[in-house]
Amino acid sequence: MEFRYFDAHTHAHFPAYGKEKEDIIRRAAEAGVGMITVGTSKLTSAEAVAFAEAYDRVWAAIGLHPGHAVESDRDEDEFGASDDAKKIPAESFDCDFFKKLAESEKVVAVGECGLDALYADTEEKKEAQRREFVAQIRFANDINRPLVIHCRDLYEDVAKLFEMHKPKKSPIIHSFRGTVAEAKRFLEFGCYFTFGGVITFPPKKNGIDYAEVIREIPDEKLLSETDAPWVAPVPYRGKRNEPAYVVEVVKKLAEIKDASLETMREQILKNTGQAFGLRL
Ligand SMILES: [Zn+2]
Fold first, then answer.
1. Do residues 188 and 218 lie in contact, with contact meaning Cβ atoms separated by under 8 Å?
2. CA distance 16 to 212
3. Residues with Cβ–ion distance below 5 A, ligand 1
4. What separation in Å is there between the alpha carbon of 11 and the centre of ligand 1?
5. How many Å lie between the centroid of ligand 1 and the Cα of residue 49?
6. Which one of 58, 71, 144, 203 is most buried, by most CB atoms within 10 A?
7. Of 3, 33, 75, which is closest to residue 247 (Cα–Cα)?
8. What is the pLDDT of residues 61-114, one digit of tens each?
9. Domain count, the chain
10. Which domain range does residue 269 map to?
11. How far is the C-alpha of 166 from the C-alpha of 189, rounded, in Å?
12. How far is the CA of 134 from the centre of ligand 1 (A)?
Protein backbone atom coordinates (compact mmCIF):
# COMPACT_ATOMS: atom_id res chain seq x y z
CA MET A 1 0.00 0.00 0.00
CA GLU A 2 1.33 3.41 -0.89
CA PHE A 3 0.89 6.25 1.58
CA ARG A 4 1.16 9.85 0.51
CA TYR A 5 -0.22 11.62 3.57
CA PHE A 6 -0.85 10.74 7.18
CA ASP A 7 -3.50 11.83 9.65
CA ALA A 8 -1.73 11.24 12.98
CA HIS A 9 -4.78 12.05 15.11
CA THR A 10 -8.30 11.32 14.01
CA HIS A 11 -11.47 9.71 15.35
CA ALA A 12 -12.67 7.95 12.19
CA HIS A 13 -14.36 5.23 14.27
CA PHE A 14 -16.64 7.65 16.14
CA PRO A 15 -20.46 7.45 15.82
CA ALA A 16 -20.31 10.89 14.10
CA TYR A 17 -19.82 8.95 10.83
CA GLY A 18 -22.72 6.59 11.29
CA LYS A 19 -22.96 4.30 8.30
CA GLU A 20 -20.52 6.39 6.26
CA LYS A 21 -17.36 4.89 7.73
CA GLU A 22 -16.68 2.94 4.51
CA ASP A 23 -16.94 6.16 2.49
CA ILE A 24 -14.51 7.93 4.83
CA ILE A 25 -11.98 5.14 4.37
CA ARG A 26 -12.51 5.04 0.58
CA ARG A 27 -11.88 8.79 0.26
CA ALA A 28 -8.79 8.47 2.46
CA ALA A 29 -7.55 5.63 0.23
CA GLU A 30 -8.10 7.72 -2.91
CA ALA A 31 -5.97 10.51 -1.40
CA GLY A 32 -3.31 8.04 -0.17
CA VAL A 33 -3.99 8.92 3.48
CA GLY A 34 -3.09 6.62 6.37
CA MET A 35 -4.34 7.35 9.88
CA ILE A 36 -4.25 6.73 13.60
CA THR A 37 -7.73 6.64 15.06
CA VAL A 38 -7.68 7.69 18.69
CA GLY A 39 -9.63 6.42 21.69
CA THR A 40 -10.75 8.64 24.56
CA SER A 41 -12.19 6.09 27.04
CA LYS A 42 -12.43 2.32 27.53
CA LEU A 43 -15.35 2.10 25.12
CA THR A 44 -13.98 4.35 22.34
CA SER A 45 -10.51 2.76 22.68
CA ALA A 46 -11.91 -0.74 22.20
CA GLU A 47 -13.85 0.58 19.19
CA ALA A 48 -10.68 2.21 17.82
CA VAL A 49 -8.83 -1.11 17.93
CA ALA A 50 -11.71 -2.99 16.24
CA PHE A 51 -11.79 -0.32 13.52
CA ALA A 52 -8.02 -0.46 13.00
CA GLU A 53 -8.17 -4.25 12.75
CA ALA A 54 -10.73 -3.91 9.95
CA TYR A 55 -8.75 -1.59 7.65
CA ASP A 56 -5.18 -1.78 6.32
CA ARG A 57 -4.60 1.95 6.40
CA VAL A 58 -5.72 2.48 10.00
CA TRP A 59 -3.81 2.13 13.29
CA ALA A 60 -5.07 2.86 16.80
CA ALA A 61 -4.12 4.81 19.93
CA ILE A 62 -5.77 3.74 23.18
CA GLY A 63 -6.23 5.76 26.34
CA LEU A 64 -8.29 7.93 28.63
CA HIS A 65 -8.89 11.59 27.70
CA PRO A 66 -8.43 14.03 30.62
CA GLY A 67 -12.02 15.18 30.03
CA HIS A 68 -13.18 11.65 30.91
CA ALA A 69 -11.09 11.39 34.07
CA VAL A 70 -13.92 13.57 35.42
CA GLU A 71 -17.67 13.56 34.75
CA SER A 72 -18.43 15.15 31.37
CA ASP A 73 -21.34 16.08 29.11
CA ARG A 74 -22.22 13.44 26.57
CA ASP A 75 -20.91 14.37 23.09
CA GLU A 76 -23.08 12.56 20.53
CA ASP A 77 -20.31 12.63 17.91
CA GLU A 78 -18.18 10.64 20.32
CA PHE A 79 -20.61 8.35 22.14
CA GLY A 80 -23.72 8.33 19.94
CA ALA A 81 -27.18 9.59 20.85
CA SER A 82 -28.96 8.57 24.02
CA ASP A 83 -32.21 9.78 25.59
CA ASP A 84 -31.41 8.90 29.18
CA ALA A 85 -27.64 9.37 29.56
CA LYS A 86 -26.73 13.04 29.23
CA LYS A 87 -23.55 12.67 31.27
CA ILE A 88 -20.55 10.41 30.88
CA PRO A 89 -19.33 9.30 34.33
CA ALA A 90 -15.71 9.78 35.40
CA GLU A 91 -13.50 6.85 34.41
CA SER A 92 -10.24 5.74 35.94
CA PHE A 93 -7.51 4.16 33.81
CA ASP A 94 -8.08 0.41 33.79
CA CYS A 95 -4.60 -0.95 33.24
CA ASP A 96 -5.64 -4.60 32.72
CA PHE A 97 -8.30 -3.67 30.19
CA PHE A 98 -5.89 -1.52 28.17
CA LYS A 99 -3.14 -4.10 28.39
CA LYS A 100 -5.42 -6.61 26.69
CA LEU A 101 -6.25 -4.08 23.96
CA ALA A 102 -2.55 -3.39 23.45
CA GLU A 103 -2.02 -7.01 22.41
CA SER A 104 -3.24 -5.94 18.97
CA GLU A 105 -0.38 -5.14 16.60
CA LYS A 106 -2.45 -2.20 15.41
CA VAL A 107 -2.05 -0.35 18.72
CA VAL A 108 0.82 2.11 18.18
CA ALA A 109 0.36 4.68 20.96
CA VAL A 110 -1.19 5.45 24.34
CA GLY A 111 -3.65 8.35 24.39
CA GLU A 112 -5.14 10.69 24.01
CA CYS A 113 -4.21 11.53 27.57
CA GLY A 114 -2.94 14.58 29.41
CA LEU A 115 -4.35 17.60 31.21
CA ASP A 116 -7.19 19.91 30.16
CA ALA A 117 -7.91 23.16 32.01
CA LEU A 118 -11.47 23.23 30.66
CA TYR A 119 -12.38 20.17 32.76
CA ALA A 120 -10.22 21.04 35.75
CA ASP A 121 -12.09 23.84 37.48
CA THR A 122 -11.71 22.27 40.96
CA GLU A 123 -8.67 20.91 42.82
CA GLU A 124 -10.36 17.51 42.93
CA LYS A 125 -10.76 17.36 39.14
CA LYS A 126 -7.21 18.57 38.63
CA GLU A 127 -5.95 15.81 40.90
CA ALA A 128 -8.05 13.18 39.09
CA GLN A 129 -6.63 14.26 35.73
CA ARG A 130 -3.08 14.21 37.07
CA ARG A 131 -3.53 10.73 38.60
CA GLU A 132 -4.98 9.21 35.41
CA PHE A 133 -2.32 10.85 33.26
CA VAL A 134 0.54 9.53 35.38
CA ALA A 135 -0.99 6.03 35.23
CA GLN A 136 -0.87 6.30 31.43
CA ILE A 137 2.73 7.56 31.30
CA ARG A 138 3.69 4.46 33.30
CA PHE A 139 1.57 2.23 31.10
CA ALA A 140 3.12 3.62 27.91
CA ASN A 141 6.60 2.98 29.32
CA ASP A 142 5.53 -0.49 30.33
CA ILE A 143 4.30 -1.46 26.85
CA ASN A 144 7.00 0.60 25.11
CA ARG A 145 4.73 2.87 23.06
CA PRO A 146 4.74 6.68 22.72
CA LEU A 147 2.14 8.90 24.38
CA VAL A 148 -0.35 10.99 22.42
CA ILE A 149 -0.87 14.09 24.54
CA HIS A 150 -4.02 16.17 24.74
CA CYS A 151 -3.33 19.41 26.61
CA ARG A 152 -5.25 22.63 27.02
CA ASP A 153 -3.51 25.52 28.79
CA LEU A 154 -1.51 23.30 31.18
CA TYR A 155 1.69 22.69 29.21
CA GLU A 156 4.01 23.50 32.13
CA ASP A 157 2.19 20.92 34.30
CA VAL A 158 2.58 18.30 31.56
CA ALA A 159 6.29 19.11 31.25
CA LYS A 160 6.75 18.72 35.02
CA LEU A 161 5.10 15.29 34.94
CA PHE A 162 7.41 14.33 32.05
CA GLU A 163 10.38 15.32 34.22
CA MET A 164 9.14 13.19 37.09
CA HIS A 165 8.00 10.14 35.15
CA LYS A 166 10.27 10.23 32.06
CA PRO A 167 8.46 8.88 28.99
CA LYS A 168 10.70 6.30 27.28
CA LYS A 169 9.46 7.04 23.76
CA SER A 170 9.22 10.58 22.35
CA PRO A 171 5.67 11.82 23.10
CA ILE A 172 3.43 13.30 20.40
CA ILE A 173 1.76 16.58 21.40
CA HIS A 174 -1.56 16.63 19.57
CA SER A 175 -2.98 19.90 18.22
CA PHE A 176 -0.23 21.95 19.82
CA ARG A 177 -1.45 25.40 20.87
CA GLY A 178 1.37 26.56 23.12
CA THR A 179 4.00 29.28 22.79
CA VAL A 180 7.44 29.12 21.17
CA ALA A 181 8.96 28.83 24.68
CA GLU A 182 6.67 25.89 25.48
CA ALA A 183 7.53 24.22 22.17
CA LYS A 184 11.22 24.52 23.02
CA ARG A 185 10.60 23.00 26.46
CA PHE A 186 8.92 19.97 24.84
CA LEU A 187 11.68 19.63 22.25
CA GLU A 188 14.00 18.84 25.17
CA PHE A 189 11.91 15.71 25.76
CA GLY A 190 12.24 14.80 22.07
CA CYS A 191 8.53 15.50 21.45
CA TYR A 192 6.76 15.58 18.10
CA PHE A 193 4.04 18.16 17.42
CA THR A 194 0.90 17.59 15.36
CA PHE A 195 -1.06 20.41 13.79
CA GLY A 196 -4.55 20.37 12.29
CA GLY A 197 -7.26 22.50 10.70
CA VAL A 198 -6.82 25.58 12.91
CA ILE A 199 -3.53 26.47 11.23
CA THR A 200 -5.44 27.03 7.97
CA PHE A 201 -7.76 29.61 9.58
CA PRO A 202 -6.96 33.32 9.27
CA PRO A 203 -5.05 34.29 12.46
CA LYS A 204 -7.17 35.85 15.22
CA LYS A 205 -6.18 39.16 16.80
CA ASN A 206 -4.29 38.36 20.03
CA GLY A 207 -4.70 34.65 19.19
CA ILE A 208 -1.98 32.05 18.71
CA ASP A 209 0.44 32.82 15.86
CA TYR A 210 0.72 29.25 14.56
CA ALA A 211 3.07 30.23 11.75
CA GLU A 212 5.56 31.69 14.26
CA VAL A 213 5.46 28.53 16.42
CA ILE A 214 5.68 26.14 13.47
CA ARG A 215 8.71 27.97 12.04
CA GLU A 216 10.54 27.34 15.34
CA ILE A 217 9.87 23.59 15.29
CA PRO A 218 12.44 21.54 13.36
CA ASP A 219 11.00 19.94 10.19
CA GLU A 220 11.70 16.45 11.54
CA LYS A 221 9.41 17.04 14.54
CA LEU A 222 6.28 18.03 12.59
CA LEU A 223 3.24 15.82 12.06
CA SER A 224 -0.16 16.44 10.44
CA GLU A 225 -3.62 15.60 11.79
CA THR A 226 -7.32 16.37 11.37
CA ASP A 227 -8.85 15.61 14.82
CA ALA A 228 -11.88 14.65 12.70
CA PRO A 229 -14.87 14.86 13.05
CA TRP A 230 -14.01 18.29 14.50
CA VAL A 231 -12.19 21.41 13.22
CA ALA A 232 -12.24 20.92 9.43
CA PRO A 233 -9.52 22.88 7.60
CA VAL A 234 -10.20 25.59 5.02
CA PRO A 235 -11.88 25.15 2.47
CA TYR A 236 -14.07 22.68 4.41
CA ARG A 237 -14.28 24.85 7.54
CA GLY A 238 -17.61 24.43 9.36
CA LYS A 239 -18.30 21.02 7.78
CA ARG A 240 -17.78 17.64 9.38
CA ASN A 241 -14.07 16.89 9.13
CA GLU A 242 -12.52 13.64 7.82
CA PRO A 243 -9.01 12.16 7.34
CA ALA A 244 -8.80 12.89 3.58
CA TYR A 245 -8.78 16.60 4.43
CA VAL A 246 -5.36 16.28 6.07
CA VAL A 247 -3.92 17.18 2.65
CA GLU A 248 -4.99 20.80 3.29
CA VAL A 249 -3.03 20.84 6.56
CA VAL A 250 0.13 19.57 4.85
CA LYS A 251 -0.24 22.26 2.16
CA LYS A 252 -0.37 24.90 4.89
CA LEU A 253 2.65 23.45 6.71
CA ALA A 254 4.60 23.54 3.43
CA GLU A 255 3.61 27.16 2.88
CA ILE A 256 4.63 28.20 6.43
CA LYS A 257 7.95 26.37 6.17
CA ASP A 258 8.60 27.71 2.67
CA ALA A 259 8.97 24.14 1.36
CA SER A 260 7.43 22.43 -1.65
CA LEU A 261 4.36 20.30 -0.97
CA GLU A 262 6.29 17.24 -2.12
CA THR A 263 9.17 17.87 0.30
CA MET A 264 6.83 18.50 3.25
CA ARG A 265 4.68 15.48 2.40
CA GLU A 266 7.70 13.17 2.36
CA GLN A 267 9.14 14.69 5.53
CA ILE A 268 5.89 14.16 7.43
CA LEU A 269 5.58 10.54 6.32
CA LYS A 270 9.13 9.93 7.51
CA ASN A 271 8.45 11.65 10.85
CA THR A 272 5.25 9.66 11.35
CA GLY A 273 7.11 6.41 10.74
CA GLN A 274 9.69 7.37 13.35
CA ALA A 275 7.22 8.68 15.93
CA PHE A 276 4.98 5.59 15.86
CA GLY A 277 7.41 2.92 14.69
CA LEU A 278 5.56 2.38 11.40
CA ARG A 279 6.99 1.39 8.02
CA LEU A 280 5.19 3.77 5.66
ZN1 LIG B 1 -8.72 13.99 19.56
1. no
2. 33
3. 227
4. 7
5. 15
6. 58
7. 33
8. 999 999 999 998 888 899 988 877 788 889 999 999 999 999 999 999 999 999
9. 1
10. 5-276
11. 9
12. 19
